[in-house]
Structure to design on (200 residues):
């Protein structure tokens, strides 16, 4: 069964002014769609055809002859999560158990946010920054290009795309401002808390 581009869980203009309709039209409609189209072509006729996305990511990571498959499978997985990690009027209060764990592992919510922004700013070139559950502890990490916590055996709870196509229309080169807006005004904390509850 072919991989498909999932519809956005909100309208194209629902995240404005923090993420514009123009950004979403390019990011979802063109970039994410291209990953899906390319992935379907690359797995066709291989032993990965018909496998679920997580299996394709795991089977192609770190294999030089399958780098193109991983690049597109990884980005497809990353973006499926990314759209769900945002919502209109996002940010705000963090559900209790998750907030408690963030304070326990980072010292404060503000310290977590600072670490998350620093992971994103510190990712040279294209990539992602993440909040992950690793050995029972919440930590931040960054990955280049299409890499993700799944490929590294960790559980992603929140991720932000720091490829330029994710923010350049709205923020130009101001990546820190984009990351701050993501945390303060776009994150769907209920979704993050739900994933934490399933993984903890």
């Amino acid at each position: 069964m072919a991989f498909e581009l999932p519809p956005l869980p909100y309208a194209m203009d629902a995240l404005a002014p923090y993420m514009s309709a123009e950004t979403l039209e390019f990011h979802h409609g063109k970039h994410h769609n291209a990953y899906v189209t390319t992935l379907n072509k690359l797995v066709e006729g291989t032993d990965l055809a018909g496998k679920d996305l997580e299996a394709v990511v795991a089977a192609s990571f770190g294999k030089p002859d399958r780098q193109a498959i991983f690049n597109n499978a990884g980005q497809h997985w990353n973006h499926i999560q990314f759209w769900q990690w945002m919502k209109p009027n996002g940010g705000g209060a963090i559900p209790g158990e998750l907030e408690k764990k963030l304070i326990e592992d980072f010292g404060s919510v503000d310290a977590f946010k600072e670490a998350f922004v620093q992971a994103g700013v510190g990712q040279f070139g294209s990539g992602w920054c993440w909040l992950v559950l690793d050995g029972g502890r919440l930590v931040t990490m960054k990955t280049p290009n299409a890499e993700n916590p799944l490929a590294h055996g960790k559980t992603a709870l929140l991720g932000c795309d720091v490829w330029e196509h994710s923010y350049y229309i709205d923020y130009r080169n101001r990546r820190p401002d984009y990351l701050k807006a993501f945390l303060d005004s776009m994150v769907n904390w209920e979704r993050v808390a739900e994933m934490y509850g399933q993984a903890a």
User: Anything to note?
Assistant: The chain has two domains: 21-84, 96-199.
